[in-house]
Amino acid sequence: MRTPPVFAPPHSLPQLPGAALRVLTPADFPAWVRLRDEVLAGLAHPDMYVREADEAAFFAQHSLPRGHAIGVFLGAELVAYAMLGAPEPGEAGHLGAVAGLAPDAQARVAHLASCMVRAGWRGRQLQALLLKLRCALAQAYDRPLCLAMVSLHNAASCHNLLAHGMWIAWTGEIDGLQRHVLQIDLLGHARWDLGGSRLIAADDFAQLRAAVADGYCGIADAVDGPRRMLRYARRLPDAAAPGHAAVPR
Questions:
Q1: H helices of the chain, where?
Q2: How many angstroms separate the CA atoms of 187 and 105, rounded?
Q3: Region 114-140: what's the mean pLDDT?
Q4: Whole-prediction pTM
Q5: Given a cut of 90, is residue 109 above it in pLDDT?
Q6: How far apart are CA 56 and CA 91, in angstroms?
Q7: pLDDT given for residue 12 in this prediction
Q8: Residue 149 in contact with residue 105, Cβ under 8 Å?
Q9: What's residue 16's pLDDT?
Q10: How far is CA 113 from the centre of its chain?
Q11: Given the DSSP bridges, would you call strands 109-117 and 145-151 parallel, antiparallel or unpaired?
């Protein structure tokens, strides 16, 4: 696995004056835990993000040299972070295996593992920026298949990922939890048969699973009266030639 570029010295962020972006190191682990404690305590539903059993192992697994962890700092305060993992085929928790990807495709998977922003700093497009940076890092790792796991209760994260060109490739139970697996192929340009699309209630787990089993993918969210809906469509052959890099919209 190639070593991707790192952010050194720290880079400033125009949408958050005074903030800097840099790679997290083991010394940042306590600040990372404090940020997670704060964000998780404020979740509207406890299923939106279930904490990893071993926080230290999770941090190490998604830091150099195995992965990449990016932090946004205001002075010494960590206000946001995002993590990228590079799992090997056959490794426990590989989302490519969960989604049914072939072993050769699993070797090209990157996990968009975790992204959190402190409440006071939301609404500044930090999640969007960190998503784009992780996609760029995934390409540097030769891992163009980016996958993310999202709770059915986490409408905001699902919306953000869909808005940047990802799609729901799988829905089911992971360790007893109802989860979507979203995907983007950075070397292609996904197209969809919108003429045969379906609108499904975002909380209808049985119908969401059935749609994926029937060859549909979730490509957008919408509102139908009081209910949040997800639009599902079948994928058409990619428009881009192999090797042409797609940019998340």
A1: 29-41, 55-61, 95-98, 103-106, 126-140, 155-163, 205-213
A2: 13
A3: 92
A4: 0.89
A5: yes
A6: 18
A7: 64
A8: no
A9: 80
A10: 6
A11: parallel
CA distance 60 to 118: 22
Query: Which of 103, 105, 70 minimizes the C-alpha distance to 183?
Result: 105
**65-95 exposure pattern, b = at least 16 Cβ within 10 A, e = fewer:** eebbbbbbbbeeebbbbbbbbbbebeeeebb
Strand bridging mode 191-201 / 177-185: unpaired
- Number of neighbours of residue 237 by Cβ within 10 angstroms: 7
Mean pLDDT value of segment 106-134:
93
Cα 221 to Cα 205: distance, rounded to the nearest angstrom? 15
Burial class (CB within 10 angstroms; exposed 0-12, middle 13-18, buried 19+) of 59: buried
Q: Tens digits of per-residue pLDDT, 142-189?
A: 999 999 999 999 999 999 999 999 999 999 999 999 999 999 999 988
How many other C-beta atoms can be found within 10 angstroms of the C-beta atom of residue 238? Answer: 15
- Cβ atoms 12, 19 nearer than 8 A: yes
Cα distances from 127 to residues 40, 65, 95, 130, in angstroms, run: 16, 23, 21, 5
**Cα 131 from chain centroid (whole Å):** 7
**Per-residue tokens: 176:** 């007893």
CB atoms within 10 A of CB 26: 11
